[in-house]
Structure formats: structure tokens, C-alpha cells
Design a protein that fits this description.
single chain, 163 residues, alpha/beta, 5 strands, globular, binds adenosine-5'-diphosphate
Amino acid sequence: MKKIAIYPGTFDPITCGHLDILKRARTLFEKIIIAVNEDSPKESLFTVQERVELIKEVVKEYPGVEVESFRGLLVRYAERKGAHFIIRGLRAISDFEYEFQLNLMNRNLNPRIEIIYLMTSPEYSFLSSSIIKEVSRLQGEVSGLVPPPVLKKLKEKFNHLRR
Ligand code: ADP
């Protein structure tokens, strides 16, 4: 049986921290589906379509990685995709509390799906999509923290918003 994992998130936008988790998870799974959550309660800068397109561009060189968006319950989506694993990244203690709650709820909904946690690499431990958006909005430099297509799109977005 093929080992398939879902890497879900808001990805608004995808950062080098997300990418680091993805690269490391690739050594564990044969296929990874990056799934943009259309029902995320977070307010977003990029549309779901823009986020999916950006991720596709960033991961186009990675065989075995697919990108799409999903609605509804994550465990149900995973089941539809034939995935028995979900990948999540862990940064600070604050992530832990939320992830712990999410884990228990998902386990309650579907105990057959295992959630795998990868610890952030130290260089990305402070990195989040929110801080990237905040710094970019104020015209700060974020190169090296987001992949080049994201950097380009952020510049476009904020120049457009300033007009
Ligand atoms: P969500 O709204 O589902 O938390 P995010 O796009 O914020 O979506 O994050 C998706 C996943 O990636 C989460 O598990 C998050 O903890 C993880 N993640 C985000 N940034 C980093 C980072 N810098 N290092 C490691 N994991 C990260």
C-alpha cells in the first residue's frame, strides 16, 4: 500500500518554514498532497486559487507532491484521498497547545488516520505567514524566508494595495 500523506494548512503564503517541513516529510512518504484549507477561519491576503497556484509553482520540481484545496473536515478529505497520514509542523509551545487539541479532535473523528509532527528547523522557528505579511506590508525585506515566486507575488500585492 502506497504511503500517502496530507500536508494541510492555510499557506497564506507558503514560507521556507512550510517548505522545510515538506522536504523532510518527502523522505517518509511516497506521495504528499499539500492541501489548502478553504474553510480556514483565518483572514487571508491571497485567495485560495492564488495560494494553490503559488505552491504549485514552488513545488513543481518535486516528484510525488501534489497541490489542491479542500473544504470540510480534514479527516474526511484524507480518507477520500486514501491517505492514512497527516503532516503538521511544530514551532513554539504555542503551536503545541493548538496542535494537541486538533490531534485529539481528529483522532476522535477518525482514529485510523495518524498525525505526524515534524519539529521546525531552528532557522525557521520564528517564521510564520503572518509575520511575513506584516513585514512585507511595511516594505521590509523577506527574501530567504519565502520562495522566490512568493517574494514576487508579495511585492505585487502590496504595491497594488498601496496605489
Ligand atoms: P494552519 O492555519 O492550518 O495552522 P499554516 O499555513 O499556518 O496553517 O501552517 C500549516 C502547518 O505548517 C502547521 O502545522 C504549522 O505549524 C506548520 N508551520 C508553519 N510555519 C512553520 C515553520 N516556520 N516551521 C515549521 N512548521 C511550520
